[in-house]
Design brief:
The protein is α/β, with parallel strands linked by helices. The chain has one domain. Helices cover 33% and strands 19% of the residues. It is built from 4 helices and 10 strands. Helix 4 links the parallel strand 9 and strand 10. Helix 3 packs across helix 4. The radius of gyration is 26 Å and the shape is globular.
Length: 215
């Protein structure tokens, strides 16, 4: 089929229109406001935070993040940890493990692949375990006394990256949102960071040889 100069011009014009349309769509998507979702024990706005950690741009490992958070907590500095989950920017206000703040039974501990309660569960079982933790109301000793006292501890190897922590937080917040929606209650997500479980145990004490005194 022979194309005239008019046909070529029409095709060129059509390509230009399509290019401009795609460019406009990309700009529109880039300018879309990002929804923020807060998970904190009380209403907290970003501008109230003295320290803000963006996991999407952090180069710290889990130990450095936890130690930094611990220092802020000790000095009374409010800290928000931020991370992207698809179109959402999620923000939590975590704390470090304080053995006097939460009794152990109110804390559900999870790693990157396991849930550390009872005899242990794979992380794929998190939804029903989380639901049991929040709705236990003191019935089973290993789970929380009440929804208000329930907390979730993330315990990772000290060298895990910010990206790996983000992956655990995305999983936790998604499952929490599902449980919160199904229970139709305003549950609170209290998150604790701790790496002490991942540290090797100290070496056994050196036996002391008792030499009898000869008189």
């Amino acid at each position: 089929m022979n194309l005239t100069s008019t046909d070529f011009a029409s095709r060129k014009h059509l390509k230009q229109i399509l290019f401009v349309g795609k460019l406009f769509l990309l700009i529109s998507c880039a300018n879309q406001p990002t929804e923020k979702r807060y998970y904190s024990p009380h209403a907290l706005q970003e501008e109230e935070a003295t320290k803000l950690l963006d996991l999407d741009h952090s180069t710290m490992n889990f130990k450095a993040i936890t130690d930094w958070l611990s220092k802020n907590q000790t000095t009374g500095i409010t800290t928000i940890v931020s991370f992207k989950d698809s179109a959402l920017v999620k923000k939590i206000m975590p704390s470090v493990r304080d053995y006097g703040l939460y009794p152990s039974k109110n804390i559900l501990s999870i790693t990157s692949d396991s849930i550390l309660v009872d005899k242990g569960y794979p992380i794929s079982e998190l939804k029903w375990i989380l639901k049991r933790h929040y709705t236990n109301n003191g019935k089973a000793y290993q789970y929380a006394d009440s929804p208000e006292r329930a907390a979730i501890e993330i315990t990772l190897d000290t060298n895990k990256t910010a990206k790996e922590l983000k992956h655990s937080l995305i999983l936790l917040t998604r499952v929490f949102d599902e449980v919160n929606s199904e229970e139709k209650e305003s549950l609170l997500l209290k998150v604790i960071f701790d790496y002490n479980r991942q540290l090797p145990p100290p070496p056994p004490p050196i036996p002391i040889e008792i030499v009898p005194i000869v008189e």
